[in-house]
Amino acid sequence: MSKPQLRLNQVTSTFGPGAMVDLPDASVIIAGLDEWRYDINNIPIIEEPRLVAKLEHILNVTGLSLRTPPPSPEQDYGATPNITAWRFPEWFIVQKTVLSGHGFHKRRLVHLNTLTALKYVDPDSHKKRSVVPVRFVRGCRRGHLGDIDWPSFVHGVHNECQRDLWMEERGTSGDLDEVWVICDCGAQRAMSQAARMELRALGSCNGSRPWLGAGSREHCGDENRLLIRSASNAYFPQLMTVISIPDSRGPLDEAVHSLWDNFLSDVVDALELTRVRRKPAVTSRLQNYTDDEILDAIQRHRAGASEVDRPVKEVEFEALAAAHDELGADVPEGDFFARKLPEAYWADAEWMNSVERVVLVHRLREVRALVGFTRFEAAGPDIEGELSLDVERARLGLDTSWLPASENRGEGIFLVFKTDAVAKWLNHPAVVTRAHQLADGFNLWKKDHPSSTRTFPKIPYYLVHSISHLLITAISLECGYPASSLRERIYAFNDHYGLLIYTGSSDAEGTLGGLIVAGRNIKRHMQNALEIGMLCSNDPVCAYHRPSEQDHQSLLGSACHGCLLISETSCEQQNDFLDRALVVQTVEALGAEFFADFA
Questions:
Q1: E strands along 315-423, which residues?
Q2: Which of these, 241, 230, 240, lies nearest to 19 by C-alpha position?
Q3: Helix 291-300 crosses helix 251-259 at what angle (to 10 degrees)?
Q4: From its phi and psi, is residue 290 left (phi > 0), alpha (psi between -120 and 50) or beta?
Q5: Which of 191, 137, 194, 150 is nearest to 20 (CA)?
Q6: Mean pLDDT to the nearest integer, 278-284
Q7: Which site in 337, 378, 483, 541 is 20 to 30 Å from 300, CA atoms measured?
Q8: pLDDT > 70: what percent of the chain?
Q9: Are the C-beta atoms of residues 416 and 464 closer than 8 Å to each other?
Q10: Nearest 5°: CA angle at 22, between 19 and 25?
Q11: Distance separating alpha carbons of residues 518 and 500, to the nearest angstrom
Q12: What is the mean pLDDT of residues 461-475?
């Protein structure tokens, strides 16, 4: 690859280390971080202490740093990409069909070692034939990956047949029952058997990690599973995202934080503090403060002032909700600038009665770090923005001293809903009944995904999340940004109920001002959003959906592509946990709507 085929943001998310990528002329797997090349004198570091501290705790490392991916060289000659990609898989299908004895077309299955300059030389005609990578590989739940042992799959483990293998399609649908692997000796097997775990057709995993280099392995022994290279479950990046918030700690809090582990963690009274202050390292940092001031700072730290122990979204919610009145004459600058929108702009509409505060975020900075990845089951952040410590994620590289990350700058709208309004709504009998239905749907989904670490997010999350999707749809019609460029942060925990709709871009496009203008007209946009939610083009089927009884949408209430579902890149839960029946009255008229007075 002499020219870049992937954007920098893609290699910190969808196509990170361990991801399989189809390029115009090859199929490759993105190499681990050890094969990313940087100019040693100009390593692009992203500063975000709050995110770094969280990741150090999750990965149990110290001295972690965040880097943006290295850009590809500008010249088109004499250079290799700064991000390596290994060729994978190593088995190919010859693009020359032959009529089989069954009357179907078959194509030869060959290994890389039998090719010459990625061409297969036909033994009969001696002509060079084009080849394409086979679309089937094997993987396990721990993220390991490898080629299928095709001879063993067809003949069994102990057979030593060396005759030619073929891929035969006995239909036009591409269904696994119609795809067969056959050998010239007469042995044959359907690919559908590879997908049946009880048959153990692909054997046990040998722990291979081709993205970390040839021969890289670790002990595993888990059952191999069939994996289609281009399938959506082949790679789930595990990302952690934070909104940059100015550090509210003063110099004294910083000093206490730096001295905590070695000197101050056991200080509980003035007597102990007097003893500790005699130590030179403490004296030099705290000599300008009184004992009372220091003890207050120690108490703040012990009570949870350390942001490592606080949920990511809790810190963000507090900073956003504390914004001052927008009528102030401050000039937006820096990484974070938010101002409260005066109630005169929006509070006179009855459908806004449950809204407590509207904040216009003129400037924000989003930092996203790639922590690891999984296959078959996604393991993203929970509703508080935290990553689970129990997830067995695949490593991005042998070197764990840094992680790839990206930073985007943008603007946004932040809404806070009244706690007492949500509490009153939760006690309504129709809401309690709907909550049980949605919980039953989640339990049904959990039975099919026993290895998932997801937990039921509770009804307030469904509510705020659904309002967010309706608002994104309504706002995108006027704000100047396409809906796929808008993102959301949902805050629904510890009696905090709010949502942030924002846009992020690596250049100036994320701060064009469209969302700020939309925020000043939030009353009208909220009205439009609620109207969108009342009627769906798929009603009455959508409105009458029961997550625990109908189809495979067990994580959704009244929600479909005609009303609530948006681009998955915009949604923090990949379009799960949505129900417009909790927001407004639908044609089913459950009586569980939060905006009961809206018509």
A1: 324-325, 337-340, 355-374, 402-417
A2: 230
A3: 70
A4: beta
A5: 137
A6: 85
A7: 337
A8: 91
A9: no
A10: 140
A11: 13
A12: 96
